[in-house]
Amino acid sequence: MELKTNYKRQLLINKIFDVFFKYLGLFFLICALIALLALIGNLVSEGFGRLSFQFLSSFPSRFADKSGILSAWVGSFAVMLMTALFAIPLGVASGVYLEEYAPKNKITTFIELNITNLAGVPSIIFGLMALGLFVYKMSLGQSIITAGMTLGLLVLPVIIVTTREAIKTIPVHIREASYAVGATKLQTIRYHILPYSAGGIITGIIIAMSRAIGETAPLITIGALTFIAFLPASPFISQAPFVSTQWMFDPFTVLPIQMFNWVSRPQEDFHTNAAAAGLILIVFTLTLTAVAIIIRNYFRKRIKW
Amino acid sequence: MFKLTDHQSSNSKKMRLKSSRGFSARIYEKIIEYVLFLAALASVFVTLGIAYVLISESIPFFKVVSIIDFITDKQWTPLFADAHFGIRPLLAGTFVTTAIALIVAIPVGSVIAIYLSEYAHPRAREILKPILELLSAIPTVVYGYFALLFVSPLLQKIFVNMTGFNMLSAGIVMGIMIIPYVSSLSEDAMRAVPMHMREGSFAMGATRLQTSVNVVVPAAFSGISAAYILAVSRAIGETMIVAIAAGMQPNFTLNPTEPASTITAYIVQVSLGDLPHGSIGYQTIFAAGLTLLLFTFALNIAGHFLKKKFGERY
Amino acid sequence: MPTELENIKAEVKDLNFYYGDVKALKGVNLKIPEKKVISLIGPSGCGKTTLLRCFNRMHDFYTNHSHTGEIILNPEGVNILDRKIDPIEVRMRISMVFQKPNPFPKTIFENVAYGLRVRGVTKRSVLLERVEKALTVSALWNEVKDRLDQQAFNLSGGQQQRLCIARALAIDPEIVLFDEPTSALDPIATARIEELVSELKKEVSILIVTHNMQQAGRISDYTGFMYMGELVEFGDTDKIFTNPKEKLTEDYISGHFG
């Protein structure tokens, strides 16, 4: 049994192209995934053997087999902390303002346009700004606080945009319900808007952090050192008030810079160290990204308006 | 039916108290609003800060080096005794690596976008898209390692005379990195095209491919062009891959198998050294940065123009 | 009922259709005579659009549905719902006009020529001739002949819908399906489309779904009344509207529900 059409031949050609394109798409997709696997596989095969307690607990050294990432991971941790302290309040506050308070006027339009443009500015430009402004004009030096502020500003658009997106999904009737029982705007935000959009906001923060942890260029630009054989000052001291902010002003290195330093050396032993550092780095970023996806899906399933 | 619990009655007491000091509560609300407004303004200050630093540090540079020399000189040797300040070698490096990256990412990303949007089963798409997006989550320094120590040796088997540092491997790896920018954003734009437009085409006897090419892609053109522009600006501004894998010697060539420096790689190179604050060598990185910013700014404007001209047409 | 003398273009046999577990069509039997207008009426959700979209296999783009039964297309007598039959071949012969005008983001000319291009026609003279004919039949030619290169989106809603009709006619279909073609249009545009449909039956069989009973009365030769997935009554339009056999049909026609 068959249908008659006058276009059998053309139809066959159309279908051949269609099927060809389908497999081309599948092929490209598989190629991209193979590239991802090759990258991860290469890091694992080169670097996994180098992972050890010694590697985590040693400072960098002239000898590849004695080197470690102690100062790098401590530095990364400290810089991430500063970045979060800086970017989260600023980003969430801007997002809330733009979504809940901002009047529809030219200033608001300008701020929005500005955030969009800022998201497209290369990260190294942020490094140059920080070099001119934070390092020299504000005399903060090549310190952890400078690094935190630089990365904080760099990821600010990510947090602002995701905060706004999250707030946008809350339907108007929820707000109206809150106002209807006499709540003020601030109370509505505090008790309704923020809790309901928390999933989206947290997702955005995690994505921002996973981006910041791998950033290298802006930190090199502000003059982060590549060879640091000491740790920043302890935040806890023996005299009152028992906490110290000295660590914020200490020089630092971070994991990606340490990896860059090792990659740039000609000796193969150092490349092994680089692979091991890279492995730790992608475990961090991929874990953060995965957590962000899981949180997003969890909240998407849980909240049904 | 309703019985006030202790908690609720204490709440109502508080509410009465609050309304009696409604004035200060209103002031408090207003203060918070201003604080939030200042936070929103922070992004504007960042932009101003960027413009201020780049321009104020570039002015003394352009007092020493004329803009004509900057644009026309074919050599970039700021740190040599015989110093030349021609940006063209750096632009050539940026251009070649960006072009290679786009040759990889635009076709591959676009085809993947059409596949995911028009062919793939919804459940397969839900899984494949986030996995693909991992490609853009990997730190660029790791990509640099991959380009220099994995891709480059592989390519040397084909181009036997190629040096270990070359623009080709840096460009290809950069292209892999930006595939998700192209594919995810294009796919979002295509999926936003309403189903009834596709149905119109299918009802004429068109295949999925014909429908995609003739109806879906033109309708989503605005979003797809935004994806391409983002890909270009990512490639131009990408730093670590080229700094690690392309070599850092300014080299006025369009041959991708040669090593070369880009604007971004040059900034890294100078930052790694120990140039004194205020020296001409120090100022060069701001002039280079300003050039880079102008390019990304031009791309942004082109993006807005395209969006205005070809808004979603459905 | 259509008399035995008429040629039957297509025949629905015991068609059941399911969206997941929901049964949307229940044992529908229907004969589509050649070169006549058949309208399907009934309240929202009665299954009339579902039935219409079976004719050109539009359901194939969505998942989670199933069916039993057949739609036989003559003269070959092939069941077009058969999985082995390529839906594209079905659509080559049965075209469709949708509820909302859905022109492509192309010029007026390219919109009408689309179906021909899909069929591999590239000769400009052939395309021009067929486009002019289709636009003339759909009563749009005089309005657009000087601006065939303009974007179709610049046309008014009514013009867009006539353009979509021209697009569906340019490929010489054997059956044209109309899915509430005037529901998004104003009364004047609606009147023009109705006029057009009555003209078209000289050339093709027409199956039209409408929410508007008066419209069915004005333009169709036969009318089917559907309710809760069943074809309650089918017959001459005059009979259905003046002397329905079923109580349910009478209640619906007289506006007791729906």
Folded structure, characterized:
The complex is a heterotrimer of chains A (305), B (314) and C (258). Chain A is an all-alpha fold and 305 residues long. Chain A has 11 helices and no strands. Chain A folds into 2 domains: 2-48; 53-302, MetI-like (MetI-like fold, Orthogonal Bundle). Chain A is flat. Chain B folds into 2 domains: 6-63; 70-313, Orthogonal Bundle (MetI-like fold). Helix content of chain B is 74%, strand content 0%. In chain B, helix 7 (167-191) runs antiparallel to helix 10 and helix 8 (195-202) runs antiparallel to helix 9. The longest helix of chain B has 43 residues, at 22-64. In chain C, the strands form 2 sheets. In chain C, strands 6-7-8-3-9-10 form a 6-stranded mixed beta sheet, sandwiched between helices. Chain C has 10 helices and 10 strands. Chain C has helices spanning 48-54, 87-93, 108-118, 124-137, 141-144, 157-169, 187-200, 213-219, 237-242, 247-253, and strands at 8-19, 22-33, 37-41, 65-73, 78-79, 94-97, 175-179, 205-209, 222-227, 230-236. In chain C, helix 3 (108-118) crosses helix 4 (124-137) and helix 3 packs parallel to helix 6 (157-169). With 258 residues, chain C is α/β, with parallel strands linked by helices. At the A-B interface, helix 1, helix 3, helix 4, helix 5 and helix 6 of A face helix 2, helix 4, helix 5, helix 6 and helix 9 of B.
